[in-house]
């Protein structure tokens, strides 16, 4: 199976150097082969069992860190929110 790493990188907004293309193609092919080798879902008994039930902890109300103290570490704050750079074009 041929994997178009350049197309995947473009869709993901990733920059991949020409010398890395072959490495990523091999890694992606290996992942696809591993997934194809997994047994069919029909072979598993997916019903939950009583003995596998999770033990949940009791919820406890505790005071949290004040917002002003948390925002002191932010490089830029506006209207009580952290300002971050735009990530999508």
UniProtKB/TrEMBL annotation:
<dbReference type="Pfam" id="PF02686">
    <property type="entry name" value="GatC"/>
</dbReference>
<dbReference type="GO" id="GO:0005524">
    <property type="term" value="F:ATP binding"/>
</dbReference>
<dbReference type="GO" id="GO:0006450">
    <property type="term" value="P:regulation of translational fidelity"/>
</dbReference>
<keyword id="KW-0648">Protein biosynthesis</keyword>
<comment type="subunit">
    <text>Heterotrimer of A, B and C subunits.</text>
</comment>
<keyword id="KW-0547">Nucleotide-binding</keyword>
<protein>
    <recommendedName>
        <fullName>Aspartyl/glutamyl-tRNA(Asn/Gln) amidotransferase subunit C</fullName>
        <ecNumber>6.3.5.-</ecNumber>
    </recommendedName>
</protein>
<dbReference type="InterPro" id="IPR036113">
    <property type="entry name" value="Asp/Glu-ADT_sf_sub_c"/>
</dbReference>
<keyword id="KW-0067">ATP-binding</keyword>
<comment type="similarity">
    <text>Belongs to the GatC family.</text>
</comment>
<dbReference type="InterPro" id="IPR003837">
    <property type="entry name" value="GatC"/>
</dbReference>
<comment type="function">
    <text>Allows the formation of correctly charged Asn-tRNA(Asn) or Gln-tRNA(Gln) through the transamidation of misacylated Asp-tRNA(Asn) or Glu-tRNA(Gln) in organisms which lack either or both of asparaginyl-tRNA or glutaminyl-tRNA synthetases. The reaction takes place in the presence of glutamine and ATP through an activated phospho-Asp-tRNA(Asn) or phospho-Glu-tRNA(Gln).</text>
</comment>
<dbReference type="GO" id="GO:0006412">
    <property type="term" value="P:translation"/>
</dbReference>
<dbReference type="GO" id="GO:0050567">
    <property type="term" value="F:glutaminyl-tRNA synthase (glutamine-hydrolyzing) activity"/>
</dbReference>
<keyword id="KW-0436">Ligase</keyword>
